[in-house]
Amino acid sequence: MIQTERALQRVLEWGRALTGFADEHAEEAVRGGQYILQRIHPSLRDTSARTGRDPQDETLIVAFYRELALLFWLDDCNDLGLIAPEQFAAVEQALGHGVPCVLPGFEGCAQLRASLAALAYDRRDYARLL
């Protein structure tokens, strides 16, 4: 599995493209993501046998951590009002519907959506995620 510090750095680098993204979003995502991956490791082996995807693939692991960080960030955006309501609506459209987010400070949303789509084993699986 990817080293914690390296994973954290990669999530932080990505998160800097999001207005209001905090180190805590990345830290919680990596810590929580590691716990989840450890708990589901046996089923990941089964999935790997079916899909041919390596459950130790750093790209997949970091994408998972980034998605968790995005959820923590979105939660804080909503609960703490980190961004204006119209910005939140634009982010929602970008993530949920693929509408380009042209607002400065939200480039990370489009990057994450594109990277998740590229990593999806089956496009239908990806569509159900969002």
Keywords:
single chain, 130 residues, mainly alpha, 74% helix, 0% strand
Précis, in short:
The protein is mainly alpha-helical and 130 residues long. Helices cover 74% and strands 0% of the residues.
Describe this structure in words.
The protein is an all-alpha fold and 130 residues long. The chain is built from seven helices and no strands. It has one domain. The chain is globular and about 40 Å long.
Write the topology of this structure.
Blueprint: H1 4-15, H2 23-39, H3 41-51, H4 58-80, H5 85-97, H6 107-119, H7 123-129
Categorize the overall geometry. globular
| SS-based class | mainly alpha
Q: Assembly state here?
A: single chain
Largest sheet: none
So how many helices? 7
Alpha carbon gap, first and last residue: 26 Å
Integer count of domains: 1
H/E element sequence = HHHHHHH
Count of β-strands: 0
Gyration radius, rounded: 15 Å
Helicity, as a percent range: over 70%
Integer average pLDDT: 80
Q: Which stretches of 5+ consecutive residues score pLDDT under 50?
A: none
**What percent strand?**
under 5%
